[in-house]
Design goal:
The structure holds two protein chains of two kinds. Chain A is globular, with a radius of gyration of 22 Å. Chain A is 68% helix and 3% strand. By secondary structure, chain A is mainly alpha-helical. Chain B is an alpha/beta fold. In chain B, 40% of the residues lie in helices and 22% in strands. Chain B has a six-stranded mixed β-sheet with strand order 6-7-8-3-9-10, with helices on both faces. Chain B has a four-stranded antiparallel β-sheet with strand order 2-1-4-5, with helices on one face. In chain B, α3 packs across α4, α3 packs parallel to α5 and α4 packs across α5. Classes of the chains: A mainly alpha, B alpha/beta. Chains A and B meet through α8 and α10 of A and α2, β6 and α3 of B.
Chain lengths: 269, 285
């Protein structure tokens, strides 16, 4: 059940996207998200969808894997769509009771849904093809200039990498504790919201205890190896751009320019 | 009254690059009252197997029957099954959550919807069965020692009065003293209540002394299934898959090679002592 959450999970396989420098993928994801929010017509989104589909195809990660992550945000998606649908002022299309669906609302709601879905899938392409370690390495390197204004880049990156690293561990732990409590007759499915929330106590308490224990162990292990932050720290595998990375940047630039141009042309929906 | 596994297979992460076949065509019958040792190397599928027995994991292929009913039927009461087939997970002390030991043990029977009196009675009995001293009952479970925590957790499952008790590596991470205490307690439990017990372990030494039957798992399949005597005969094959027979078996085989007329297939130290004694006396006489 909890294994279905794919956000932040890595899918091991061999593909050109997996081999790309994490910085390229990070910049790529950000550019992709920005492009999603700049587009104003359907053609632009078709462009983005094609680009995304190509990335997924090249990454060799089964599409099923990305949509699995969608299940967890379906509630959020529904709320956004409903609010946009009913609360946008404009020319009314249908109206019943106190609710009115407007032309603008329909347009906004569908665009919002498309944006959110592609945003989630787009960022899961990045996390599925990049190991958490690589990802934070890339982030650290990208944000390096900020060190000049006293931003603790290394520390933040380290925290991120630990947080990401712990997601699958804690998920597995949750799964195990839930099973153990189910073996003692716990019921997580039936009952109303309050009952369901109460049923989670036997899971959350052990989970928190184990998280603290793990954090403690990790801190101890890091100290035992004389970890002391970013100053003068070198890397075994420093990030270096290769030819493929420059090509990827070029493709990205091409997509961004093209996508925005098409996406912002105004000829109706 | 028994558990039957019929051609059970289970695949993790099906249809992805990480696909692992954890169980492969398992056929087993677990009759009432038997004390079974389930042995296998790490990753042999033993933990996955026991989770099938109380319906926590659904078999990808095949079926599991408890008392003649298919537990994966949509109208089968899984909660009742879990009270009948009690499963104690690895490191069960990690599931303790209540403010005191007694309330934690009450969690299981309370979930069965029993009246408060009955719940408390069962919790008290279960804590007595695992031999936890009375002054621990109202302490926080997190203040107990490792061995005590584990016993409290086992009591939490026992309080549901299961007919089958499955223990997944109950001795993992305990010192020799704690290990002997837990195993001794399990043996006593079985003598007093006569329930079916499945003891999962990777140590032959642990189980050889106690169980009636040993099931050896290797790479998701049942490799051997028989009495300890029958299974340990294959000690060379067991070594090849990273397991070993108890030390007595090795000693007895060596003695036999050296010309002492002993029965080399004994499995416990007690038997070995009698055998060697008899052989030596026979020589003299």
């Amino acid at each position: 059940m909890l294994r279905d959450i794919t956000l932040g999970q890595y899918y091991q396989t061999e593909s050109p996207i997996h081999r790309l420098d994490p910085r390229v993928k990070l910049v790529g994801t950000i550019v992709f998200i920005i492009s999603l929010f700049c587009m104003k017509n359907l053609l632009g989104y078709v462009c983005a969808a094609v680009f995304l589909a190509m990335c997924i195809r090249i990454s060799k990660v089964p599409f099923k894997f990305m949509t699995k992550g969608m299940k967890s945000i379906i509630m959020l998606l529904m709320i956004t769509v409903v609010f946009n649908l009913f609360l946008t002022p404009g020319t009314p299309l249908v109206s019943f009771w106190k609710l009115t669906i407007t032309r603008e609302g329909l347009r906004l709601a569908s665009f919002m849904a498309i944006r959110l879905v592609m945003l989630i899938i787009g960022s899961s392409v990045m996390t599925l093809t990049t190991t958490p370690n690589n990802l934070t390495d890339g982030m650290e390197k990208l944000l390096n200039p900020l060190k000049k204004i006293k931003v603790p880049v290394h520390e933040v990156a380290m925290m991120m990498s630990i947080a990401l690293r712990f997601i699958p561990i804690l998920l597995e732990e949750t799964d195990k504790i839930m099973k153990a409590q189910m073996a003692r007759g716990a019921d997580f499915e039936s009952g109303n919201l309050i009952k369901k929330a109460k049923a989670l106590v036997p899971v959350l308490v052990p989970l928190f205890i184990s998280a603290f224990r793990r954090a403690n162990d990790l801190a101890m292990a890091m100290e035992a190896r004389c970890y002391r932050g970013g100053e003068h720290r070198t890397k075994m595998k420093p990030l270096v751009y290769k030819k493929a990375d420059y090509i990827a940047y070029l493709i990205l630039l091409f997509y961004f320019a093209g996508g925005i141009c098409i996406g912002r042309l105004t000829f109706g929906i | 009254m028994s558990l039957i596994l019929d051609h059970v297979s289970y695949t993790y992460e099906a249809e992805t690059s990480m696909e692992i076949k954890a169980l492969n065509d398992i056929n087993l019958v677990i009759p009432d009252g038997q004390f079974i040792g389930l042995i296998g190397h790490t990753g042999s599928g033993k933990s996955t197997l026991v989770q099938h027995l109380n319906g926590l994991v659904r078999a990808t292929e095949g079926a599991v029957y408890y008392n003649g009913a298919d537990i994966d039927d949509s109208d089968y009461n899984k909660r009742e099954l879990r009270s009948k087939v009690g499963l104690v997970f690895q490191y069960p002390e990690h599931q303790l959550f209540e403010a005191d030991v007694f309330s934690d043990v009450c969690f299981g029977p309370k979930n069965l919807g029993l009246p408060a009196k009955e719940v408390e009675l069962r919790a008290y009995e279960a804590l007595k069965l695992v031999g936890l001293p009375d002054d621990c009952f109202y302490q926080s479970p997190f203040d107990l020692s490792g061995g005590q925590k584990r016993r409290a957790a086992i009591a939490g499952v026992l309080a549901m009065k299961p007919e089958v008790l499955i223990l997944d590596e109950p001795t993992a991470g305990l010192d020799p003293k704690g290990r002997d205490e837990i195993l001794g307690q399990i043996k006593r439990l079985r003598e007093e209540t006569g329930i079916t017990i499945v003891l999962v372990s990777h140590s032959m030494e642990d189980v050889a002394e106690y169980v009636d039957r040993i099931i050896v798992m290797n790479q998701g399949r049942v490799m051997y299934d028989g009495t300890p005597r029958e299974v340990f005969k294959n000690y060379r094959e067991l070594e090849e898959v990273g397991l070993a027979a108890p030390q007595v078996t090795y000693i007895m085989h060596r003695l036999q090679e050296k010309g002492l007329s002993v029965d080399a297939d004994v499995t416990t130290i007690k038997e070995a002592v009698t055998q060697i004694g008899m052989a030596l006396n026979g020589k003299k006489g």
